[in-house]
Design goal:
Blueprint: H1 4-28, E1 32-37, H2 45-60, E2 65-70, H3 78-87, E3 92-96, H4 97-100, H5 119-126, H6 131-144, E4 146-161, E5 175-178, H7 182-190, E6 194-197, H8 203-209, E7 214-217, H9 219-224, E8 233-249, H10 250-254
Parallel strand pairs: 1-2, 1-3, 5-6
Antiparallel strand pairs: 3-8, 4-7, 4-8
Length: about 260
């Protein structure tokens, strides 16, 4: 389990790096503003991460670099956020590796079910300096015009439904929401269910109205969004250990003078 202190240390480390790269440009302009769009609630772990990043960058640049955070899909749905960073209309975002793979297919390998032994194994692989991530990051830069800044632990994905699920056979014909990307659709199908691609912003309504009968996400997501109001059971399938990937538009990144 990642601790609050360690989580903040990850964010502070990146903020210090941004500070070094922005120092010269910050001296030339009164203020640099970058927009950070994401699909999550501002009170969720991933939403708080974005706010902490903005706070640390402002603190380490004496307010010369400002990150404006737009949560809850204000700047677009999951696919639109990835495309926005690629095109430069959005400076920063965080996303699942599976969602990023819609723009660079190789990235989907990071979200393969039951791939990691434990938390440490996952975080070692997604570390920006690991051989795997260095190769994937270079491919992302070359093919999409965005780069990985860092990754943080999102959680281990579990299954929730409006019924008890004890075997894959119990999921036959049951519609389960999946992130609209091939690796997640395949993962849900592998559990035995009928995957339905639904953007996160539409999930609570889809569950409440019966468009889907279940979904899969870490426990913290189910708690923050009160999915227990529309889902009676949680099955600890632990099928994907997931990191959120923070990306920035490459042209914007290269616009910072490197010291």
């Amino acid at each position: 389990m990642v601790t609050h202190t360690k989580f903040r240390h990850i964010v502070a480390t990146f903020a210090a790096a941004v500070s070094c790269n922005a120092m010269v440009l910050g001296a030339q302009a009164q203020e640099i503003e970058l927009n950070y769009g994401h699909m999550n609630s501002p009170t969720s772990i991933v939403g708080l991460q974005a706010d902490w990043l903005a706070e640390e960058v402002a603190k380490n640049t004496d307010g010369k670099v400002k990150i404006d955070v737009y949560p809850s899909s204000q700047l677009g749905k999951i696919q639109e956020l990835a495309e926005g960073v690629s095109m430069g209309s959005i400076a920063l975002s965080h996303n699942t590796a599976g969602a990023i793979s819609s723009l660079y297919e190789d990235f989907g390998v990071l979200d393969i079910p039951y791939l990691y032994r434990d938390y440490d194994h996952l975080m070692n692989v997604v570390d920006i300096h690991s051989p795997v991530m260095e190769k994937l990051n270079q491919g992302l830069i070359d093919n999409t015009g965005m780069r990985v800044l860092y990754a943080f632990y999102f959680g281990t994905r579990q299954l929730t439904a409006d019924r008890a699920i004890k075997t894959p056979a119990d999921l036959a014909g049951v519609k389960i929401r999946a992130i609209p990307s091939p690796v997640y659709l395949t993962a849900v199908e592998g559990l035995g269910a009928a995957p339905v691609p639904v953007d996160w912003s539409e999930v609570p309504t889809a569950l409440a109205t019966g468009i889907v009968q279940g979904q899969e996400n870490p426990v913290n997501v189910a708690l923050v969004h009160k999915l227990y109001d529309v889902q009676s059971h949680m099955m600890l399938t632990g099928h994907i250990s997931a990191a959120e990937i923070v990306v920035i538009n490459e042209e914007i990144w290269q616009g910072f003078p490197m010291t």
